[in-house]
Write a structure and sequence with these properties.
Blueprint: H1 3-14, H2 22-25, H3 32-42, H4 44-57, H5 59-64, E1 70-76, E2 94-103, H6 108-174, H7 180-215, H8 238-248, H9 250-271, E3 276-285, E4 293-301, H10 305-374, H11 380-415
Antiparallel strand pairs: 1-2, 2-3, 3-4
Helix pairs in contact: 1-6, 1-10, 3-6, 4-6, 6-7, 6-9, 6-11, 7-11, 8-10, 9-10, 10-11
Amino acid sequence: MNVVACVTATLVLASALSTIGQETAASTPIPLSQLLAEAKANNPQLSAADHEARAARQMVPQATSLPDPKLTYQQFSVGSPKPFAGYTDSDFAYVAIGASQELPYPGKLRLRGQVADRDADTKQAEIGVLGAGIADAVKADYLQLAYLQQTLSILRQNETVLDQLIQDATAHYQVGKGLQQDVLEAQLNRTKIVREITMHHEQMGQIQAHLKGLLNRDQASPDIVTESLNETPLKSTSSKLLALVQKNNPQIQVDASAIQKQDAQVASAKREGKPDFEVGYMYQNTDRKYRDYYMLTFDVRFPRKKRVDAEIAEAQEKRIASQKTFDAHLQQQLAQVQQLYVQASSDEEQLKEYRDGLVPQSDAAYRATLSAYASNKDQFTHALSHFTELLNLKLDYTQTLLDHETALAHLESLTGATLR
């Protein structure tokens, strides 16, 4: 292996971590913020949930309106079942028209309206949960796509380096200075890289399809190109992030809204025990030679205590269940935030170890072994081993970088904070 080939292989491999592949550079990268805005505007699930929330808001005027009034028409016959029998010769036969209106006990409609209003608030809060979930999915797809595009570039550039190593190992073998085993082992490593590249293309295609679905894009539309995957330092403290959960977490807001709804439901159920009224008025017309009749009616409906007590008990039990659900979800969200914070902090330490220690040291070992092999002072297997180790370290670094950025993305969804 000559010195020029050695230098070429070293320089190409050293640039593998920091550069993007040619196919990635051919298209303009799309910022994550742009895709998040697109998903918010175009995702059909969000649109459906928004219309459901609007529909729920229309329940308020329905709940607070008086029951529909009734118009009554009567015809009273005397002496025969035939219509208008006795109308001209009896002062009991008449034709009547009247109206009546049911009047719920004061406060009932207002409390029913509050229940409907709180239910609409819950529906609105549920949009936040759905929106956060969709945004989280877009971020996860985007980061995974960025990872695959970045590691694909590393694999392709290392494939180029390995091609050079295979070429030189073959040349050594042909002149009797190397072993056929060296060539075969290098070719095996190249085949493994080709397999990884094929798997990367498959994964990228699957993620592209899922991401386009979230954005409501045509599946035949051009593939999405991401920006480079870079480390974002975690500046917020654990205590600050935990404090944001109860304030901004979408699921906690839904649970809090559900508690308010049940509070209104309890108050409404208690009010339902009060009596309702109905007022009616009727005008009865007889033949003109007789006097007309006028009738006023006033009805009172008394709710059965057993039914009302059961409704109150049901509402109170649901109120307790809503509170317990709130408490359970709050603890779950707090635990997730703490776990993600620990993971992100640990990932930052690992990234520093890769960046400042493992990768440079492995690169130096590879360069030294490659130089020694070029001078016939070391075996090809040693150079190939260091090459493989350096490649794996760079891939591990990128995987850790993905884990770190994904953890920050999840923390954003849980806390409502902007961390990236």
